[in-house]
Amino acid sequence: MSDKIGLFAGSFDPVTNGHVDIIRRASKLFDKLYVGLFYNKNKTGLFEPASRQKMLKEALADLKNVEVIVARDSLAVDIARQHGVTHLVRGLRNAQDLEYEANLAFFNSQLAQEIETVFLLTALDYRYLSSSRIRELIYFKADISPYVPQAVVKEVEQKSENNQKI
Ligand code: ADP
Fold first, then answer.
1. Protein residue closest via CA to atom 17 of ligand 1
2. Residue 52 near ligand 1, beta carbon < 6 Å
3. Which of ligand 1's atoms lies nearest the C-alpha of 97?
4. How far is CA 130 from CA 10, 14, 109, in A?
5. Which of 4, 30, 60, 140 has a Cα-to-Cα distance from 23 of 20 to 30 A?
6. Cβ contact 40:68 at 8 Å
7. Binding site per annotation, positions for ATP
8. Which residue's CA is the closest to the ligand 1 atom numbered 22?
């Protein structure tokens, strides 16, 4: 049988424990799992793409079959095809996610029928966790450590010590 290759794509602005949990679980289901940091030139986030990539890589360093790739202004299916991806992986927190994610999956299956989308349900602890909530906490200088990998805490601390814009 040919290898099963997954792609979990997102903007990871920043990566949260919810993302890491999905990635850990998905890494056991696939021979190889790409984590795609996707960003758009015209849609600026809170963290620079290079800093998002650094945090992701650090948070996932112990997962040997996981590789972080970066794509700017690209369709997920195009990047998936370039890497021989067989499955797109998405996370679901609630019915609202399902609505959005189902629409995206239908659309992607129109674009690339050979690529299957699979969904993993979030772990109970992470149902309310999103990157936008974390950005809010950072804005208000609140403690983010229960919700994100240590790499994110470190990055935010370093930037604020140096009075650097995130
Ligand atoms: P996007 O900008 O594409 O929404 P995200 O980085 O927010 O990118 O999310 C990427 C994927 O991670 C999506 O499938 C989303 O549903 C999933 N996800 C986000 N937060 C969580 C969480 N707390 N638990 C499980 N899945 C999540």
1. 91
2. no
3. 16
4. 12, 9, 26
5. 140
6. no
7. 11-12, 19, 91-93, 101, 126-132
8. 18
Task: Quote the tokens at residue 36.
Answer: 């795609």
Q: Write the CATH number for 101.
A: 3.40.50.620
How far is Cα 19 from Cα 27, in angstroms, rounded to an integer?
A: 12
Q: Record the tokens describing residue 48, joined without a space.
A: 């620079």
Burial of 57 (0-12, 13-18, 19+ CB in 10 A): middle
- Per residue in 98-120, pLDDT (tens digit) is 999 999 999 999 999 999 999 99
Domain span including residue 110: 5-164
pLDDT tens digits, residue range 123-153?
999 999 999 999 999 999 999 999 999 999 9
Tokens, residue 14: 């920043």
Which residues face 158 on adjacent strands? none
User: Around Cβ 49, how many Cβ atoms within 10 Å?
Assistant: 20
